[in-house]
Amino acid sequence: MKPLLILDQHFRKVEELFRPQTFDALCGLCDVKGGRNWPMPRQNIDDLLPDAAFYVAARPELTATQVTAATRLRATIEVSGAFRDGLDYEACFARGVEILSSSPGFRSSVAEMTLAMILAGGRGLVAEHEAFRRGAERWLDDREESDFSLFGQTIGFLGYGQISRETHRLMAPFAPRVLAFDPYADHSAEGVTFCDLETLVSESRVVVVAAVPSEDTRGLLSADLIARLRPGALVVLVSRAWCADFDALVRAAQKGRICVATDVFPEEPLSANDPIRQARNVILSPHRAAAVPEGRQLIGDMILHDVTAILEGRPERQLKAADPDQVQSLVRAQNSIKAIPNT
Length: 343
Known about the structure:
13 strands, single chain, alpha/beta
């Protein structure tokens, strides 16, 4: 008898998360209930929980009583991209139910966008595109005040998780010098020098803000640190605006000190009259770093891998496991961020 897997992935679509062959393999491994492109009625979920081995949802919701009653439950897996409220984490930890997040499944598409924003910002592609519209393009002209080649540059990562590591890998042909600040990362990682924030911002030509939003990372790139950025630096935001003093970044860009490329904003969607729409030295992307056809299907691959590993008793996981010491801080941060919840 195959283990029961509840799949309530809406707002995501099944084909958004799974390649056809991956979904077929998951259905071959488990008795999948749900998997429709509309919300699963809560009563259906509650009826299935006592027999379920896996609960996969955009936002898993379980009370302590439900966790206790779900005696066969092995793991919950969220597919929105972050740990959120609605799940009794303490009850899951006490019962030995694994809590897994799909956040690593965004690494390829977001890292690709990060590299694209670095290249566009460094070579002035957006600025010259807009200059063409005004008839003010500069033919064969070195933009010495802002442009730079990525080759051999110093790149600083605020947060050296999966997205930063993948971006670093993609940049390998450019042979950059890479700095990182991340108290929780493996500091033995090859090709990267871990340092303090002051060193990172003062020495980096590009600063990538990719820290996980938590209480510890609120305003991590502060106004004081922004003032220490080298002239002409490019700041790329791909995690959440929560991790930076966003207003200070915009002011520094408008003064011409730095350039900013951002996929995230303090409030989303951005209001029509927000001054950043007219700001100089910015590249704006409407929270779509992961929004590319097939860009999220790595999540489905990881779900299949981890479900298989759990059933076979193997310890390796590709999804992100909740850390009891950090998860509540992550949940509080997600609840506080005034942003579009969908990654």
